Amino acid sequence: MTATELPTLVDSFVALPHGPRLATRRAPGALRPFLLIHGLASNARLWDGAARRLAHAGHEVVAVDQRGHGLSEETVDGYDTATAASDLNVLISTLGWTGDRAPIVAGQSWGGNVVLTLAALHGGVAAIALVDGGWIHLSDRFATFDECWDQLAPPRFDHLTRAELVERSRGWNSDWPEEGRAGSLANFGDNTDGTVRPHLSREHHRSIVHSLWADDPRPLYTRIGVPTLLMAAVDAVPTTSTPVTEALAKIPDAEVAWYVGAHHDLHAQQPDRCAEDLLALAARVDA
Length: 287
Hints:
By secondary structure, the chain is an alpha/beta fold. It has helices at about 50-55, 80-95, 110-120, 145-150, 160-170, 180-185, 200-215, 245-250, 265-270, 270-285, and strands at about 10-15, 20-25, 30-35, 60-65, 105-110, 125-130, 190, 195-200, 230-235, 255-260. It has one domain (about 5-285): Alpha/Beta hydrolase fold, catalytic domain (Rossmann fold). The protein contains ten helices and ten strands.
């Protein structure tokens, strides 16, 4: 199936009660909804390939820009994993997804930590998929947050014009489908002087990284009461304990799909397989 044969995603906004106005990319469907969550400094368009395949299979699909990301509202604060999970809980309620329409929620990277927190603390989901995330705890790697930020602060692109950014991006992710590559460029907005800027401000980026450093997801594992799929990008299937195998062992109803040799943004790089695995999770839930 070619990309032109897949359903179109429609852009819309959802204003959360007492919360930010969130941008979404949506497709209708009679089957159980999927809610798709991007990672840190990313945006909903990275999910386009997988989302369109899920919609083609008959599922309602919503991919959302988290607060301060993509086209969603930039708030003064709230840039931490717990607040992001609360936003999703309110979004699900606002969309009316309850009972037989309780969604399957998939989150990539930091979005995986957000989805894990949503399921553990709020519930209201039918299943979750953790896409190369959900097990991130940066203080395992960095003794202090200053050291963490020194290593993980994002590069600066705000001196580039849009044309310069597009030219530079030609060497990025050359094995991705074009819609995934276009999605990565949607991480940036345009300034009035013709230069680009990341949609997520550097200050808010730092706040989220601090949350990933300070918050330990492991106590949440045993609180997950729904089927869980771990989708892990690895160089090789591990034979010793890793954060992924620890999560697999402690989450009560968990399975793993190993993406050997895959990019961290495996949902954008391999939308066909990603969608297939998510559809298998849906079948597991509805069985």
